[in-house]
Amino acid sequence: MSLARVVPLSCEGCGGAIEARVAESVNAERDPQLREAILARSFHSFVCAACGARTLVDGAFLYIDLGRGEFYGVFPEQARERARACAEQVAAAFDSALGSGAGNAAARVGERVRCRVCFGLEELREKIVARAAGLSDLALEALKGAVLRERADLAEELVQTLRLDGVEPEDGSLVLRPERAGDPARVDQSRVMLIERALYDAIAAQPWQEILRGLPGLASGPHVSLLRLGDDADAG
After folding, report:
1. How far apart are alpha carbons 51 and 69 in whole angstroms?
2. When you count CB atoms within 10 A of the terminal residue's CB, does the N or C end of the chain come out lower?
3. In degrees rounded to 5, what are phi and psi of residue 221?
4. CB atoms within 10 A of CB 51
């Protein structure tokens, strides 16, 4: 089941007191409304009764959806600076629950589960969208790198990565939005980039070893992210 705790917050708008129910773990099979809230970008977003402003909580929790084959350890964006330690923590939790440290039945379930570490709710949302669309997140991250290399204007706008928003049902085109560097990073919801599905398919057709040969450091254990290339990804 999903676990949560009540924490006191200060409204980012007026400073008023907010009591927020913050997740420690999410079981998306038992609580599908939490998955829908993540996809709608309303999860951990709390409205102040006094002024109506929204306060977003960027916390740490475990997201599990065994039916869809997902086991994601989620950390605040700022925890990216200790990415290796976070990835090791998630890998250890997975190993204990669904890997070599679990029973045979649980380990068989774990064979079809994608274990990942995510930093921030936007990255979690993207992993969920990619999994639902049957996309390889490794190929997706490599595609982002290829697009950014071709678009020097995005670097000038401090775009650090692109985020998968969805997949067009008609032709399978990937809907991406630019994410600008900052504290916190911000996804530009006003801009949409449509990427032809053929570009993704060409990358996804390559063996994973070939993808990593072209972009060393794109993935390590459960951490698969283009941002690894710009960070000291092994810190922590």
Report:
1. 40
2. N
3. 60, -130
4. 12
Give 61's contacts (C-beta < 8 A, 6+ positions apart): 22, 23, 24, 25, 26, 74
pLDDT at position 235: 56
pLDDT, averaged per 10 consecutive residues of the chain (236 residues), comes to: 94 93 97 98 95 94 98 97 97 96 94 98 98 98 97 94 98 98 92 98 98 96 95 56
CA atoms of 38 and 64, how far apart (whole Å): 13
pLDDT at res. 230: 76
Structure tokens at 83: 């990415």
Structure tokens at 179: 């994410």
Q: Which two tokens stand for residue 142?
A: 């490599």
Residue bearing tokens 């600076």: 81
> 30 with 41: CB under 8 angstroms?
no
Please report the pLDDT score of residue 225 as a whole number.
98
Given this model, what pLDDT does residue 146 score?
A: 97
3-state percent breakdown (helix, strand, coil) of the chain, nearest 5: 40, 30, 35
> 11-43 burial by CB neighbour count: b if 16+ within 10 A, else e?
beeeeeebebeebeebbbeeeeebbebbeeeeb
pLDDT at residue number 1:
85
> Residue type for 222, please?
P
Task: Please state, in angstroms and as integers, the Cα–Cα distance from residue 192 to each residue in 36, 145, 163, 175, following that order.
Answer: 21, 17, 10, 7
Distance separating alpha carbons of residues 135 and 125, to the nearest angstrom: 14
